[in-house]
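Exercise 3.2. Students should predict the tertiary structure of the chain below and write it as structure tokens, then compare their answer with the key that follows.

Predict this chain's 3D structure.
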Amino acid sequence: MEKEAALIEAILYLETDPQDYAFLARLSGLSKDVVQKAVEVLEEKYRKADSGIELTRIGGGVMISPKREYWDNLKERYGKRNETRFSRAALETLSIIAYSQPITRSEIEAIRGVQADTMIRLLHEKSLIKEVGKKDVPGKPVQYGTTREFLKFFRLESIADLPKLNETEASRFELE
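Answer key:
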């Protein structure tokens, strides 16, 4: 299993985005079961104190990344390309989409109380949101949801990993 784990490690090292088991199996020529075992071997290897990296699960895939405990030391140099600053309005719009998806522009505006076109365009350009369908109402407005890039940016395995909202916070995301 050492050679298989080494091959998967090399693939993950070269890939910049999270990769699922199907992709890793296809690229390595190994079965999905062997890939899964190899990933488990790598996770165990990286858990040790002498490793500065870990396997991160994001959006149904895995990737190699620095351990969270070292990020404060690394982000000054390496965080700039991945760390985009967003305005409060952009973060508020993104939060509404993340917690309420699928959601239309007019629903976002009803929750925020202001126009959302600019924020939606910005978040779409950053690939943090995408069109996920059309609402079955007159006019068929576009519905938005988060992307895999959103999960990667916030280091989430799935949307279910978003922090849970208390009752007061949750009511803020409801349409009146």
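Discussion points: The domain at 2-78 is CATH 1.10.10.10 (Arc Repressor Mutant, subunit A). The mean pLDDT is 88.
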